[in-house]
Design a protein that fits this description.
Blueprint lengths: L2 H13 L4 E5 L2 H11 L7 E4 L6 H8 L3 E4 L11 H6 L5 E7 L8 H10 L3 E5 L19 E5 L12 E5 L2 H11 L7 H14 L15
Parallel strand pairs: 2-3, 2-4, 4-5, 5-6
Antiparallel strand pairs: 1-7, 6-7
Helix pairs in contact: 2-3, 2-6
Amino acid sequence: MTDSTDRYESMIAQNVAADHAIAFGFARHALIAALTAAGLKAGDEVILSPLTCKVVPLALLSMKLKPVYADISPDTLNIEPGQAQSNITPASRAILFQHTYGHPDGVKEVAALANQKSLFMIEDCAQCMPLNEGDYRPGQHGDVAIFSNNAGKPLSAGSGGVAVTNDAMLAEHMRQARGLLPRRSLTDDLRILSLIHISEPTRPPLLSRMPSSA
């Protein structure tokens, strides 16, 4: 880990009023680390929205977990709490709540459901800014929340992600899991730099400000 990564983690944790922040070279690695730290095993089910980035179910499948899609609300485009409840089975272990386009509608109801059913809850905040203002509190309802630094996201740095949690033991287990994940390669960094150049040609390269791959 580097001093810049430590500063980045501290800044994010402070912005969202969380006790811990853990940076990753890829946002999907944050998801894998969170599920690993929570103790999910092959065959366990994770309830999620079908309106999501393909890397989310691919990350679950890489761990031999079973994605279970619950329908979304036509009004909010977020997972519908009643649909999430109807998809809970004895194999359910986690719920992944996506803040679609940064909107938190339904997160409190899904968090209450997860608590009632003893399910691990992850907030997918990839489309959110890491802010804690008034009633806008992304990442404060689940066991852990994940923000993205990928190109095109509100907190873009080309690639990377950061998880936040108030659970000290979960944070420590996620740091341990991070150490076992593949590090970002030079090829990855060059590809990311190319994407930045293509998508934001008028901006200076951001690679020096990206969280280090851990």
